[in-house]
Design brief:
CATH superfamily of the largest domain: ATPase, nucleotide binding domain
Largest sheet: 5 strands, mixed
Oligomer: single chain
Structural class: alpha/beta
Order of helices and strands: EEEHEHEHEEEHHHHHHHEHEH
Helix content: 40-55%
Strand order of the largest sheet: 3-2-1-4-5
Distance between the termini: 50 Å
CATH architecture of the largest domain: 2-Layer Sandwich
Strand content: 15-25%
Length: 319
């Protein structure tokens, strides 16, 4: 008599701030979840130890909640913001799985956002990238080239444009804008020139500089037309990234889901203009992400095993 054992699947989102693991059964039901610390870098011994700790802690917590302390996974997918190249060998040592996919965070964010359906995601936080996949499984990207050469429309870029506007106003060759006073007050700087030089030092990290982008939205809501123009230009740049990915993957008129995610989309002015531009292509179906990246990783684990599951009990995407 053949005994058919139940199969279990694992999805992991490994980020710069935390790690999230989800365990599911072959029906798509999420049985347990767990969290661990950040796991972005593994180059040095300390980074490797933190990485292993974050993975084992989050997976152990998910297993415990699922009541599956020592299970071997039929399939596992793990996505990382720092990329997969230096992590796969370590993961194969510490995680028992018949199949294992180690990938970047864009793929699992896409799978979660579109519920594994054909479409694309535009991620705009500190940096920006558009990533998509069509029904044939072909994937494409645009952007994501870093704060010096890319990241158009994202938080760092918004702050850069705001500071440039403040500098032009201060030197007398740009239109007046309340952005100057907002930036100076928030940074306790005497003038825009001083703030510029402080941004060039290690006093401010890239993420801290990007956080000043909220001032652009605040200033635009108070009626500053230059701040509003910066937001609309950012929306247009992000829409161009989305359009570039769509053109690589979908025929004109072919339906595609488009999901925005990331801190800059909290700006109603930016998000509204972005949506307007995206919906100029009538075949685009615009909407917020369905699930977060950890659920996306779990969906990719099912996909790797040849299963197409509708998730049950999965946590919905949280803004």
């Amino acid at each position: 008599m053949t005994i058919i054992r139940p199969q279990y699947f694992l999805g992991v989102d490994g980020g710069q701030s935390s790690t999230t693991a989800l365990v599911g059964d072959e029906s798509g039901r999420v049985l347990g979840g767990g969290r661990g610390g950040p796991c972005n870098h593994v180059g040095a011994a300390e980074g490797r130890a933190k990485f292993i700790g974050a993975i084992t802690t989050s997976v152990a917590a998910a297993r415990e909640q699922a009541g599956l302390a020592h299970v071997r996974f039929a399939s596992a997918c793990l996505g990382f913001s720092g990329g997969p190249a230096d992590k796969e060998a370590i993961l194969r040592e510490i995680l028992p799985a018949d199949r294992m996919i180690v990938t970047d965070d864009a793929l699992i964010a896409l799978a979660g956002a579109t519920d594994a359906q054909p479409g694309l995601i535009v991620i705009a936080g500190t940096g920006s990238i558009a990533f998509g996949r069509n029904a044939a499984g072909k994937a494409a990207r645009a952007g994501g080239w870093g704060y010096i050469y890319g990241d158009e429309g994202a938080g760092f870029d918004l702050t850069r444009q705001a500071l440039r506007a403040a500098l032009r106003f201060e030197e007398g060759w740009g239109p007046p804008t309340a952005l100057r006073e907002k930036l100076l007050a928030a940074s306790a700087s005497r003038d825009a020139n001083e703030l510029l030089h402080r941004f060039y030092t290690t006093e401010f990290t890239r993420s801290q500089i990007a956080s000043f982008s909220k001032l652009v939205d605040d200033t635009a809501r108070e009626g500053d037309m230059l701040a509003l123009e910066i937001l609309r230009n950012a929306a247009q740049q992000l829409a161009v990234l989305a359009g570039a990915v769509r053109a690589q993957l979908f025929e004109p008129g072919e339906p595609a889901r488009v999901a925005p995610t990331g801190g800059v989309f909290r700006s109603e002015a930016l998000a509204g203009h972005f949506r307007l531009l995206i919906e100029l292509e009538e075949a685009n179906h615009y909407g917020p992400p369905v699930y977060g990246p950890a659920a996306g990783a779990l969906l990719e684990a099912y996909r790797a095993a040849g299963l197409s599951c509708a998730l049950i009990n999965a946590p919905k995407f949280e803004k």
